Amino acid sequence: MKAKQKLIVIGNGMAGIRTVEEVLKRSPEAYEITVFGAEPHCNYNRILLSPVLAGEKTLKDIVLNDDDWYWKNGITLHKGKTIVAIDRRRRLVRTEDGLETPYDRLLLATGSNPVIIPFPGKDLPGVIGFRDVKDVDRMVDAAEKYRHAVVIGGGLLGLEAANGLRKRGMEVTVVHILDSLMERQLDKPASALLKRALEQDGLRFMMEAQTEALLGEDRVRAVRFKDGNEIPADLVVMAVGIRPNIELAKAAGLHCERGIVVNDTMQTYDPRIYAVGECVQHRGQLFGLVAPLFEQAKVCADHLVEFGIARYQGSVTSTKLKVTGIDLFSAGDFQGGEGYEELCYQDPARSVYKKLTVRENRVRGAVLYGDTGDGAWYFQLMREGTDISAFRESILFGQAHLGDSGHGDQNRASLLPDDAEVCGCNGVCKKTIVDAIVQQKLFTLEDVRAHTKASASCGSCTGLVEQLLHSTLGSDYSVTPAKKPLCKCTERTHEEVRAAIRREGLKSIPAVMQFMEWGTVDGCASCRPALNYYLLCEWPAEYRDDAQSRFINERAHANIQKDGTYSVVPRMWGGVTTPAELRAIAEVAEKYRVPTVKVTGGQRIDLLGVKKDDLPRMWADLNAAGFVSGHAYGKALRTVKTCVGQEWCRFGTQDSTRMGIDLEKMTWGSWTPHKFKMAVSGCPRNCAEATIKDFGVVAVDSGWELHVGGNGGVKVRATDFLCKVETEEQVKEYCGAFMQLYREEARYLERTAPWIERVGLPYVKQRIVDDAAGRQTLFQRFMESQVTAQVDPWAERARGAERNEFQPIRIDRKGLAA
Amino acid sequence: MSDWIEVGLLADIPRQGARVLQSPRGPIAVFRTVEDEVFAVLDRCPHKGGPLSQGIVHDRKVACPLHNWVIDLAAGEAVAPDHGCVNRFPVRLDADRVFLQLAEV
Ligand code: SRM
Ligand SMILES: Cc1cc2nc3c(=O)[nH]c(=O)nc-3n(C[C@H](O)[C@H](O)[C@H](O)COP(=O)(O)OP(=O)(O)OC[C@H]3O[C@@H](n4cnc5c(N)ncnc54)[C@H](O)[C@@H]3O)c2cc1C
Ligand code: SF4
Ligand code: FES
Fold first, then answer.
1. How buried is A676 (Cβ within 10 angstroms: 0-12 exposed, 13-18 middle, 19+ buried)?
2. Are both A123 and A203 inside the same structural domain?
3. What residues flank ligand 2, with Cβ below 6 Å?
4. Which ligand 1 atom sits closest to the C-alpha of A630?
5. Closest alpha carbon within chain A to B81
6. Max CA-CA distance within chain B?
7. What's A172's DSSP letter?
8. Do A769 and A650 belong together in one domain?
């Protein structure tokens, strides 16, 4: 056994400890960890110092990692110990009091210091910054003894300080050098609304005021301005910015500019030394919010434990002001300008203001004042670059306006009673979520999902859960990373993985994992099915399906039920059957004592409650009667619903039943990213409900209308109209091409509805309608992959394939039973 | 101490998969990991009794097919944040033959 490597962390703050947590998550045994922190506290949530100052929370409430945590994880913590030197040659660090400790890897997370402008009088007692517990203590103390406070700086931090001091009973004046508050986050109209609201709360403002000196003898007494004016001040808080804390790094000869310069792996100039947090400078940029620091922490941890795959590429951030009663949200390029369009909504009576900047039909920035419920949604649209043309006219009214029952009114979350059910899938109520966030110190949607299961299933309550995170934590750091990894085993996205499979000619799951440096031995239950699908889709003729990487339903070709039995749904082409078929089903149902026979919502018959070892024999009987698997269990083509159409119906314009059967015969057996459903209606009365299917066909006198991207289920979405075609051959070609485009480009487990919302209908139209040659190639690829796909899995197994899957081993007390 | 009984060949269990043993103790799931380690647990998920043998096996873990709890087979426990234990049975490999004891650990 080799001795454990030593990791030293300088800075017991948010970025440093988050990195340690990420390291432990990946590899708890990798390092012997020692942390030095200048502050005499455990790691606490610095963001929440504002509510502590305002008296809404106590120091105890905001501790993130208590002594016990360090102890349990075997971490040595030196509280109240400042590191004064790094000796890179001897690889050790030295504290003020001379203690030397050696390291193999060093992590700098020294944060930043408040900028103190060198006015005369800046060193007087009573002049402070707003950064740590000590500063809050001093402010609270001053509020008890004195009356007049002046906050220099009208940014986020300054306003939070001013609000807190006001709440503590002081008379507060905010001095700002520019003519509008929070100019980095707000445009002028929003800024004006904010100022008015804060004035109503009793704050005073001096705008465009230039401070000249701080006056006083043994304590600050007044502030003097360039124009000669003076105002009384017993306490001056400077909140004019922060400066990365880089002295230590500089003295050690590490390359620094404004911050400690790091590369995309968070490594400094010395390969043994990493840095994260506000002390770093990455691609020329400095940081002042926690969301990017948490992303850096992940990347850094990956490299510290030598997974070595992640790259930090910068972050998109959003901000909120944590002043109770004031709702404000800002993100992105909210100022707009050349090439941007601005969408605005103003309701002066309610003090609501919303502005979105839009470019090429994508949200690029947002400022919300008064009603920020949809902030998370706009932010998501912005990060994912979603095409908004479909709902542009109503976007300012919010997501609730789109009629998505699951997301509901975002403001509702905070108003909900404690026992209101937030997640219908997992039966999780509001209190459970809020308690988990508070007690388990959860930060992100992912955390909440893992601990409470809320929003872990269908995800339609995601908006509400995010809202609860926001209202409970009072800040914006729950943002999920811009780049969404395929699963926890990798940092790679679905798109990156697919591109590599194609480019590198990877042909097996282990090959993909090895090439893309997976972080786990053999993946997990999320990535293996995805990889199996991607490989199958890319190499239809060559790839050998990996049964062990399929969810049980697809492995056993039947749906598992809550009691461990299975259900069997044979195909009933286009929903049409015959007396002979029905008789055969009846016989099978009796022979295998099927407890429930049910007509499904997909126009066929479900035999529920079948024992697994009976499946192959039952399939053999069904095969003999002409049935094949209905794939009711698969991420695959499901049903093609039809109506009676021209043949019988007095309104029918075309033979919709025939069309449906033809489509089902053409597409059955194909595997898709998620299930794929179709329907064909004989006239616009649309009895087959074609307009909530993945691919819907509606017959009209002059031909066939094609509709795509519909969804019943959790979040109902009506289809988008794709185009109209004239012949049956065209319907098939467009159908196959559309399916193939979806198969090749959607992410695994993404249905056509969210996929189209993500890539935009215009894109799909361009590929399927405008580009005729492209459509034909897609169709051709679809038909080629069908050659190997259209093998009835039931028939294969009825003949004995995968026998072990269906046969239990019987033993008695002595061994194998006969 | 009960005796070791032979339950078949390693090759009878799919790698990254499982077989169900119908035993006097009820259904037992016998797993084989990607590295050919073998584990046996009672085929009942601590959550709502789902058949663990039907789950996706990865590393030394299995994801229950019903609601996706992940069970660590070596520890015999659900992976955090879920809580619960499974009954494990001792297993032993002798060359390519798999032996099991019906007493639980
Ligand atoms: C059997 C059936 C209900 C019935 O008795 O009618 C059914 C049963 C199940 N549905 Fe369904 N759905 C059935 C028609 C539908 C329909 C209606 C339709 O297809 O016209 C819908 C809404 C339409 C749609 O999908 O857009 C529907 C939307 C869902 C959803 C939500 C999908 C979504 O995108 O929001 C799920 C959950 C999922 O897939 O993750 C689901 C999942 C399920 C599962 C597979 C749940 C599960 O994982 O065990 C159920 C399997 C039961 C079984 O063992 O057979 N089922 N399900 C229907 C089978 C149709 C068939 O012949 O294949
Ligand atoms: C009042 C306030 C409100 C905020 N609100 C928000 C918000 O709403 N949203 C948001 O995203 N961000 C907010 N922030 C910013 C956020 O807190 C910081 O981005 C984050 O804490 C930075 O983390 P860090 O680890 O880089 O630095 P820190 O958390 O400051 O940690 C650095 C630690 O290193 C220690 N240290 C420094 N040098 C040494 C040394 N030589 N030896 C030993 N220890 C040393 C320091 O004492 C400090 O404890 C707020 C900040 C403040 C002060
Ligand atoms: S709606 Fe569908 S998923 Fe829900 S209980 Fe019914 S069959 Fe099951
Ligand atoms: S029964 Fe296993 S996760 Fe629910």
1. buried
2. yes
3. A 10-16, 36-39, 46-47, 49-50, 82-83, 109-111, 130-131, 157, 160, 245, 248, 277-278, 288-291, 293, 322, 475-477
4. 63
5. A451
6. 37
7. E
8. yes
Tell me, what's the pLDDT at A309? Answer: 76
Ligand 2 center from residue A83 Cα (angstroms): 17
Pull the structure tokens for residue A367.
């400022």
Q: Is B47 in the pocket of ligand 4 (CB under 6 A)?
A: yes
For residue range A631-649, list pLDDT tens digits in order.
999 999 999 999 999 999 9
| A111 Cα: distance to centroid of ligand 2 (angstroms) | 5
Inter-residue contact A196 to A348 (CB < 8 Å): no
Domain B4-100 adopts which CATH fold? Rieske Iron-sulfur Protein (2.102.10)
Which is the closest atom of ligand 4 to the Cα of B48?
1
Q: Which amino acid is at B36?
A: D
Give the nearest chain B residue to A814 (CA atoms).
B5
Q: What ipTM does the predicted assembly reach?
A: 0.73
pLDDT tens-digit map of A201-248 = 899 999 999 999 999 999 999 999 999 999 999 999 999 999 999 999
Token pair, residue A182, equals 């929070």
Query: Which tokens belong to A410?
Result: 């975002």
Residues of chain B contacting residue A450, judged by C-beta atoms under 8 Å apart: 81
Residue A135 lies in a domain: yes
Atom of ligand 1 nearest to the CA of A601: 6
The DSSP string of A433-474 is HHHHHHHTT--SHHHHHHHH-TTSSS-TTHHHHHHHHHHHH-
Domain of residue A683 covers 632-791
Give B15→chain A minimum CA distance, Å: 8
Give dist(CA A430, CA A418) in Å, integer: 5
The pTM (predicted TM-score) of the whole model is: 0.59
Q: What are the chain A neighbours of B35 within 8 Å (beta carbons)?
A: 521
**Using a CB-CB distance cutoff of 8 angstroms, which residues of chain A are in contact with residue B81?**
450-451
In a domain, A257, yes or no: yes
What are residue A189's phi and psi, to 5 degrees?
-60, -40
Rounded Cα gap, residues A309 and A312, in angstroms = 10
**Which range among A197-201, A570-574, A619-623, A657-661 shows the weakest confidence by mean pLDDT?**
A197-201
- The residues, any chain, with a CB within 8 Å of residue A64's CB and separated by 6 or more, are A14, A17, A42, A43, A44, A45, A441
DSSP-assigned beta bridge partners for residue A717: A711
Judge: B6–A816 Cβ closer than 8 Å, yes or no: yes
